[in-house]
Design brief:
Largest sheet: 4 strands, parallel
CATH architecture: Alpha-Beta Complex
Distance between the termini: 44 Å
Strand order of the largest sheet: 5-2-1-6
Radius of gyration: 18 Å
Length: 144
């Protein structure tokens, strides 16, 4: 009797919707959990060359925390490409400006650097407050 290994195809993927409340949660720990949901690591049918992940809705991004006083030490950098055009923003300033970018950047850096990264990050939806527009998808609440 021969055993056949079955590989998951793009048509066989079933995507679920999850909702994550990040209120009073630590940024790095929450980003790793969200990244594993986007990759689909908890699924038995995961294959490395097909995007098997799920949709993740994040709420309360304004209330995310850091540990050991990093609120004033953690910096976000961006560069326009021109000489001397490096801009830096502290975590607490970025939290006031746009807290969604904090979550997206943290999760984006946790994903593997390959061709599937853009598709995976596109399935991450972040909201500042507790209200969200994805109730029709009936997301499953995840306690992290």
């Amino acid at each position: 009797m021969k055993y056949k290994t079955t590989w998951t195809k793009k048509e066989d993927i079933e995507r679920n919707w999850y909702i994550v409340d990040v209120e009073n949660q630590i940024l790095g720990r929450i980003a790793t959990k969200i990244a594993s949901l986007l990759i689909g690591k908890g699924k038995p049918e995961i294959v490395p060359n097909v995007d098997c992940g799920d949709y993740v809705v994040v709420i309360n991004s304004d209330k995310v925390k850091l540990t050991r006083g990093k609120e004033t030490r953690k910096m976000y950098y961006r560069h326009s490409g021109y000489p001397g055009a490096l801009k830096e923003t502290r975590f607490d300033e970025q939290l006031k400006k746009d807290s969604r970018k904090i979550i997206v950047d943290a999760v984006k850096n946790m994903l593997p650097q390959n061709k599937l990264k853009d598709k995976r990050i596109a399935r991450l939806i972040v909201y500042k407050g507790p209200e969200h527009k994805n109730a029709a998808q009936k997301p499953i609440e995840i306690k992290l």
